[in-house]
Design a protein that fits this description.
Blueprint (H helix, E strand, L loop, with lengths): L2 E8 L4 H19 L4 E9 L2 E9 L7 H12 L14 E7 L3 H8 L2 H5 L2 H4 L15 E8 L8 H19 L5 E13 L9 E12 L5 H16 L10 E4 L9 H4 L2 E2 L4 H4 L20 H18 L5 E8 L8 E5 L8 H11 L4 H8 L28 H7 L7
Length: 407
Amino acid sequence: MWKFYTSESVSEGHPDKLADFISDSVLDEFLRQEPTSRVAVETLLTTGMAVVAGEVTAHQAHVDVQRTVRDAVMQVGYTRANYGFDAEYSAVLVSIHEQSPEIAGGVNHSEEWRAMSDEERARPENRFSEVGAGDQGLMFGYATDETPELMPLPISLAHKLTRRLAELRKAGTLPYLRPDAKAQVTVVRDGEPHEATQTFIDTVVISTQHSEDVTQEQIRADMLQHVIREVIPAELLRPETKYFINPSGRFVIGGPHGDTGLTGRKIIVDTYGGAVPHGGGAFSGKDPTKVDRSAAYYARYIAKNVVAAGLARRVLVEVAYAIGRAHPVSLRVDTYGTGLISDEQLAELVAVHFDARPQAIIAELELQRPIYAQTAAYGHFGRPEFPWEQTPKAAALRQAAKLPANP
C-alpha cells in the first residue's frame, strides 16, 4: 500500500524563525557571559517592530538586548528599510524580569534533594539530583535509519532545500532572492519507512520571497536548476513528480512585514516534520534547565545511539517530568517492531546507560554554552555539529545487549 509522508521547512528569514533566532541569540549572549543564567525569552515581530519579553535570572551578565536583537536581524539579512523590517531602524522593545522565585526554588533544589540528608547528598550517585525540572511535560526523541543522519527523509530534504535557498541568496548567485522562504516535500513509499522497497518524491513545494523585477518563469527555472535538482537525489525524482513554485504568485512582501512572527511557533519544523508526536513545548529562548528543550535533545541522543548501535531501525523515546523533581516520572521506548531485543529490555538498557536528570543532561552534553542561535533554523536534529547528535554509547549498548560488534 502506497503511503504519503509530508514535511515542511521554513528559512531563517521566515518571521517565526527570525523570532526564534533572536530569542536564541539573546540566550547565547547571557550564557556567554554567565553560563548558569536562567533564561526564558520570547520574541514577537511585526512591521517595523520587535518585542522581546520573558524571564532572566543572571547575577553577572549585562546583556545589551537591543543590540543583540539588531545584530541577529542583520545576520539573517533584513538590512533595508523597504523590507518593512530592518536591523537598524525597526523599533526594539524589551520587557524582561527575573524568574519566578516559586519556579526557581524547585529548579535550584529538587524535591529529592530537599528530602536528602547531608550524608546522602555527598554520595556520588546523587550529585546530579540537586537541580529539578523547570516544568512538567513530555518530550520525544526519534531516530530512523532511512537517512545517513538518522532523520526522516521528508524533513531532511525540506531543510536542505531551505538551507540551499539561503546559501544562494547570501552568495549572490540569485540576487533577487529575499530572506523569507518555505519548502515542503512529499515522499511516497510502498509501506512504512523500514519496510519500503520503493521510495520517490511525489511533490515539492517552494515559496520564496523575491524582488519586484523578476518573473515567475525565471524563479521556477532557477528553483528547478539551482535548488531542487542540486538537493534531491535524481533517483528520487520521477517524470510525474509535481513541482509547485511560488504557487500563490508574487511573494515580494515577506518576513515580519508580511506576517507576524512568534518564538516557538514552528515546533514540528524544529523536530521530525510530523513523523512522530511532539510533547508541545517549544525550544528557542530557553536555557537547558528547561526540560522542554534539554530533555528533547537528550531523547534524540538516546534514540540516535540506539539506532547507531543497530538495536533497532526506528525508535521513539518518550520521557516525562514533574516540575521540581530531578528524576523523570516515566520513560518509554518504542521500536515499531524493528528491535533486536524487546522494547522492555531496551528501556531497561536505556535506564542504565543514560541519566535523564536535568543536571546530568546538562553535564553530559555540555549545554551551558552559547550554542543555541545556530539551532534556530533548519532543524534542531540531524546536524553533526550538535552534541546530542553524537553516538558515543552505541558500542556499549550493543555489548550490553549481548550482540556481536557492528561490522
